[in-house]
Amino acid sequence: NKRGANMIGIARTVQLPRPNDFLAVLAALAEVHFGDVLVVNTIGSTRAVAGSLFTTEAARRGVRGIVVDGPIRDVEDLACPMYS
What we know:
21% helix; 2 helices; 4-stranded parallel beta sheet
């Protein structure tokens, strides 16, 4: 768990096209670069946009951290810093 960890990198932003439609987040994960910070605007989603599997892949791709303006899950098993 990376709770309280710092994240410094280029912000790569993604906005969901509508609440609870997470395809854009998955597409953004495929496009991030090593050292990026992924910033997600969920526009009011009520379902978790990311969890342990998502952060595991993000960490594998070199993402420094993720910032989400909505719910996340699996908070005890996140593989990279995540703020929600």
